[in-house]
Amino acid sequence: MLPTADEAIEELEIAGRLNPGPWVKHSMNTGAAAKYIAEKVPGLDSEKAYICGLLHDIGRRAGITDIPTHVYDGYKYCMKKGWDEIARICMTHSYLRMQDEFSYEPETEHEKAIKEYIMNYGEPDDYDKLIQLCDSLATDYGFVILEKRFVDVTRRYGIMEGYIKGWEVAFSIKECFEKKMGCSIYDVLQDIGRTTLLTPKPWKPSGSSSNKISVGYGDCMQQNGYRIL
Ligand SMILES: [Fe+2]
Q1: pLDDT tens-digit profile of 94-132?
Q2: For residue 219, how far is its CA from the centre of ligand 1 (angstroms)?
Q3: Could you identify which of 35, 36, 89, 216 might form a hypothetical disulfide with 188, taking C-beta atoms 3.0 to 4.6 angstroms apart as the criterion?
């Protein structure tokens, strides 16, 4: 089950008041990118894609948290609302490599639950892949090409092998959708040429402590040494 687009926007507005930050505009742009791409992919429902994009980070309503926490908070919140299709997007959107992400044993209870969920998930569907892709190209100030986003994050945090493998997945998802669209994904993302060239200063949460580093995107926070996209 899904909320309507109007309900999703209202949820996002409420969440933005609970935890203000660039993640809200990032979510709106993720929804918009998903909608524009889905409109060109036969068999995809662009309204569903839009709603999934709007709410993929809804776990951030709980505050500034790391990746596993916002993933699991979003999942629990959506399940409680009866939005099972959004709940699964909350779980899959940060793990482009899916089962390959979990070669380690998580320490926290919620990360253990995520691992169990992903390990039993099977193949991600087109909506999972679409939101994984759009999450990687939607910033709070607009759409950017994947290379820009990846380089920005790498400049801040350095190179990690697993992260680069995630890039490869993102590029393969991009190519897969482009085959179905018959054009580049960038052809349908308005103003991407201009916004890709922008380099706004990193956003910092008010009252941030030294172990919380914002890098300017809704999803890019480093906390307790855990690097996240
Ligand atoms: Fe996101």
Answers
A1: 999 999 999 999 999 999 999 999 999 999 999 999 999
A2: 5
A3: 36
Report the separation in Å between the CA atom of 109 and the middle of ligand 1, taken as the mean of its atom positions.
Answer: 22
CB atoms within 10 A of CB 36: 20
> How do residues 89-98 score in pLDDT, each as one tens digit?
999 999 999 9
Structure tokens at 229: 């996209």
CA of 228 to the centre of ligand 1 (A): 11
Q: How far is CA 117 from the centre of its chain?
A: 18
- Taking the centre of ligand 1 as the mean of its atom positions, its distance from the CA of residue 26, in whole angstroms, is 7
d(CA 130, CA 126): 6
- Are 94 and 228 spatial neighbours (Cβ–Cβ below 8 Å)? yes
Strand residue runs (E) in 35-184: 138-139, 142-143
